[in-house]
Amino acid sequence: MDHQPIISLQQALDIAQQKALKLPTEFIYFKDAVGRMLAQAVYSDISMPPFDKSAMDGYACKRSDLGKALTILEVIPAGQAPSYAIQEGQCSKIMTGAQVPAGADTVFMIEQSELMDTNQVRFTGTKTSSNICLSGEDVQTGDLVLGKGTLLKAQHIALLAAVGCTSPKVYALPKIGIISTGSELVEPEVIPQGSQIRNSNGHQLVAQAQQTRSLVNYYGVVRDEKEATFQLIQKATEENDITLISGGVSVGDFDFVPAIIQQLGFEIHFNKLTVKPGKHTTFASKSDRYIIGLPGNPVSSFIQFEVFVKPFIFHLMNYQLPDLSFPLSLAQPFKRRKADREEFIPVRINAQKEVETISYHGSAHIHAYHQAMGFMHIPQGTDQLNQGEIVYVRPL
Ligand SMILES: Nc1nc2c(c(=O)[nH]1)N[C@H]1C(S)=C(S)[C@@H](COP(=O)(O)OP(=O)(O)OC[C@H]3O[C@@H](n4cnc5c(N)ncnc54)[C@H](O)[C@@H]3O)O[C@H]1N2
Ligand code: MOO
Q1: Prediction pTM value
Q2: What is the pLDDT of residues 305-348, one digit of tens each?
């Protein structure tokens, strides 16, 4: 496997996308659908609004009657059909959201009215809009309201509710198994002794995977022992679509994860990226099962999840996650010693909406990210950026 060439992040995303076999679909209750990927188009079974609807509390009348004293026929609350059609010289008091009576083409607002008698009113303004939302002006019966492949957010849940689509078809969620490797690791409850460190990475990955709504299985820490590591990775790959393994993927004497991946019959498609942090990101597949090996350093693992694992998870659900990087101006000049890899570094946005870099010591320094608003991209080959230069920032 050492003959694998080092490739760019974009090449890695392309390879992974080619290997991503789509997950099956399922029908779920629409209230549980936020964050899910729609696997069907949704059409409206009604027009919206379903009737000519008043946009104001006021009086419904004929526009040609606006200058006259008008006889009030009734009060029309929302949810109740009007009893009378409007004739010349007549109006009905109407509430916002109520059905406009036949014969009326205008609603003038309460604030522009004067009661002349208990059942007579006149318009006191100089001009008014019609204040009527026409039947079907937003959506007509049979219109497409949500396209296949929509990532469902709160506003889409409102649409599903409005058109009565209570069991939308969505892509199944991937099952993700998470393993941390390393004999130096102890779980957070334990006070590390000697050369031990706490397993922060595994729990960070669990949280990141949960944010994508994936179904997460946490397998804990495995020591740098071949047989135990083999057993745990085998179990995780049998029980999950994606197995994320942090640590043990570089070239140290105890980095035997790559050999185990191959022993399990998986094909390694790449194991080195021209990305900092995350040089040792590994991607392997066997049919519809995938293993992603992430570097043990917490920042490497965090960034690789954001830029590589997350888009891959969405590919499995047939969705091209957009790269929401924003072009912003750099507040101060930036230099780096080596430019052989593209790099991501933590930044914040100041009050002038400029990008400020945060003190950052490298891929073990996860603390640098506690106040990061995003991370900035430095292209491969760039060792210097000037103040005021436009950089791309991905928000967190
Ligand atoms: N001779 C070389 N050595 C290294 C290279 C290289 O190219 N040649 N690359 C370096 C880079 S870059 C990285 S990144 C690391 C990747 O190493 P591994 O993925 O094998 O990870 P480990 O060696 O197991 O750990 C690295 C580092 O991170 C700490 N760690 C590991 N797991 C966790 C965890 N769950 N929570 C918190 N911290 C964790 C671990 O203790 C190490 O300090 O390799 C370099 N070496
Ligand atoms: O590739 Mo390592 O993740 O840069 O520190």
Answers
A1: 0.90
A2: 999 999 999 999 999 998 889 999 999 999 999 999 999 999 99
Pocket-forming residues, ligand 1, beta carbon under 6 Å: 180, 182, 184-185, 197, 199-202, 246-252, 255, 279-280, 295-298, 300, 363-364
Distance from residue 294's CA to the centre of ligand 2 (Å): 10
- Is the domain 9-24+173-316 a CATH 3.90.1150.10 member? no
Order of strands, sheet of 282-286, starting from the edge strand that comes earlier in the sequence: 215-222, 175-181, 242-246, 289-294, 282-286, 267-270
**ipTM metric:** 0.94
> pLDDT over 90 for what percent of the chain?
95
Q: Is the CB of 297 under 6 A from ligand 2?
A: yes
DSSP labels, 10-57: HHHHHHHHHH-PPPPEEE--GGG-TTPBB-S-EE-SS-BSSS-EESSS
Ligand 1 centroid to 149 CA: how many Å?
37
Q: Could you tell me the CATH superfamily of domain 28-47+138-171?
A: Molybdopterin biosynthesis moea protein, domain 2 (3.90.105.10)
Six token digits for residue 273 = 């990226």
What is the domain partition of the chain in residue ranges?
9-24+173-316, 28-47+138-171, 53-133, 326-395
Q: From atom 12 of ligand 1, which residue's Cα is the shortest distance away?
A: 279
Average pLDDT value over all residues in the chain: 96
Alpha-carbon distance values, 240 to 43, 206, 217, 222, 234 (Å): 34, 14, 8, 18, 10
Q: What pLDDT band is residue 2 in, cutting at 50, 70 and 90?
A: low
